Amino acid sequence: MTDLVLVNPPTSAAERYGRLAEGGSKLPPLGLALLAGIAREAGFSVAVLDAEALGLTAEQTCERILQLDPSVAGFTAVTMTVHAAAEVAQLLKSAGSRALTVIGGVHVSAVPEETMEAFGAFDAAVLNEGDATLPELLAAVRAGEELAGVAGLLLRDGSRLVRTAPRELTMDLDALPMPAWDLLPDLAETYRPAPNAYRRLPSSSLVSSRGCPGACTFCDRTVSGSRVRSYSAAYLMRMVETLHAEYGIRDIIFHDDNFLASRKRVFEFCALLEQAGLDLVWSCTGRVDAVSPELLSAMKRAGCWQVAYGVETGSQELLDELCKGTTLEQVRTAVAWTHAAGIE
User: Is 330 in a helix, a strand, or coil?
Assistant: First the structure.
């Protein structure tokens, strides 16, 4: 018997990328790895089932969950995978599983009631960040207590849906445990980014901050909000060193909304990375108004080979319509500075 099984739903590369499946990415579910680490640190037995990475069908995923006999089956889902998550949850119900089925992730956080109304196989939803909500939910389930006292949930009450008290965002990311990478399939062998996103293999990914202060009209900030909260440079260095030493990773992609949001932190991280002299390269995302020649030079010395800028469009009119807050001149300048630093 297991307290918790965290599930990345079964979806194939063909479903995600169509004719471009061969060039698609297969990335580790970082959110599930972190939640697994949090639950394990709180004293619960945890398993992670990355059905997507393992190429499982819905039926095979259900069978593996049943073998673990969890008290809680937690699913993450984006919009294109929520149907697959619901299918597995329904198969669990049909098989007589006693597990509480819980859905989390960006889709249900963006449209909570609509998701729960559409998919009756989910017993509860964790809204927004689950760092504190999940261990409290597990403790309540173990004690046989009502979940109404756990903040950050959407619950079923007969035919009604009821939200519990709102949950505050996690402010101190350094207080969180390391992700439970050991509970995922082999990082070096199982996962691979898209061909244009890595310089070396094995490659993996990290998210080192949450939140974005931007007001872009195309972006939803439901889960992590508008305030940027980051791991410190020292904690981030620990994560990088762990991936390098214990999992053989030689290329890291930072998938933050804006890795460059705090120049001070990036300078500190680059200094630590350069001092450590790891056999490692890395890339990141960023806004064109967040860089300087000095910052890019420090990043290059620390092993950065690529920055993915959110340019969005070559039309200033469209940039203004999107509330991007940047100009085409800033785009040209940032790209020129980046090339001058020797970064792609």
Answer: helix
Tens digits of per-residue pLDDT, 207-222?
999 998 888 988 877 7
Q: Decide: helix, strand or coil at residue 251.
A: strand
Nearest Cα residue to 269 out of 243, 293, 244, 304: 304
Q: What is the mean pLDDT of the chain?
A: 95
The CA distance from 129 to 6, in Å, is 15
Domains and their CATH numbers in the chain: 2-163 (3.40.50.280), 186-340 (3.20.20.70)
> Which residues, in sequence order, are CB contacts of 215 under 8 Å at separation 6+?
323, 325
Tell me if residue 142 falls in helix, strand or coil.
helix
Distance between CA atoms of 112 and 154, rounded to whole angstroms? 7
Instruction: For 160-195, write each residue's pLDDT tens digit.
Output: 999 999 999 999 999 999 999 999 999 999 999 999
**Through-space distance between the first and last CA atoms of the chain, rounded to whole angstroms:** 49
Going by C-alpha positions, the residue among 144, 142, 147, 145 that lies closest to residue 161 is: 147
Give the residues across from 253 on adjacent strands: 205, 283
Residue indicated by tokens 């990345």 = 8
CA distance 280 to 117: 47
Cis previous bond, 9, omega within 30:
no
Q: Which of 117, 91, 102 is nearest to 32 (CA)?
A: 102
